[in-house]
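REQUEST ID: PR-0412
SUBMITTED BY: lab tech R.K.
PRIORITY: routine
TASK: structure prediction, single protein chain
INPUT:
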Amino acid sequence: MPILFIRICPYIALDERLLFPDPRLAVEEGLLAVGGDLQPERLLLAYEHGIFPWFNPGEPPMWWSPDPRYVLFPERLKVSRSMRTVFNRAAFSVTLDQAFPEVIRACANPSLGRTESGTWITSEMEEAYIHLHKLGFAHSVEVWLGHDLVGGLYGISLGLVFFGESMFTYQSNASKYGFIHLVKQLQEWNFQLIDCQQGTRHLISLGAEPIPRDQFLEILSDQDFNQTRRGKWNLDER
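STATUS: complete
OUTPUT:
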């Protein structure tokens, strides 16, 4: 039986079936489809095909695949002179997967240091990603000043790709400090790519760059998602 999608300009409407249209059908801004749900199976299928959810409170799930796609190749990480100074004095401590719910809730609060504008991380999104964390696919980076959580980020790991979602900072340079630690760790684990989704000044300063969507999808098509580094992460001792 052929698969049919209902085209409602300028996007594709999803139903209860666990399916996504070809990401190349996304409109110019990157919107591909609307509808569906945030169950783990759908979210993981989306990431495997270069698609991510992004929508405002009160809206149905909206699924995106922008072109170009901003990514960071771990070996091309940029660490500025000022950040090297911060590292040399060990200004913060960093952990992985120690406080995932606290990190995503901080990222969701626009008044508490989010590095992106808007309030797209709804309670439904929080619940969905906390579920993925419990399943071993979603991971957090925590940056601490003493016993205080002052920065962090979270994302999804599949194959040798880390799909970054959001970051926050309460202290100057805290989120960059955590991100650099993460990239260095992913390098040691031979990760090939970090998906930044869209370019921000913050991420571009760290080495994020645009690549054509087709190139991004080709990288994903070469991944063995059965080899995902699943479960709780810890930083290797250095």
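NOTES: The helical segments are 40-48, 81-88, 100-108, 123-134, 174-188, 201-204, 213-221.
REVIEWED BY: pending
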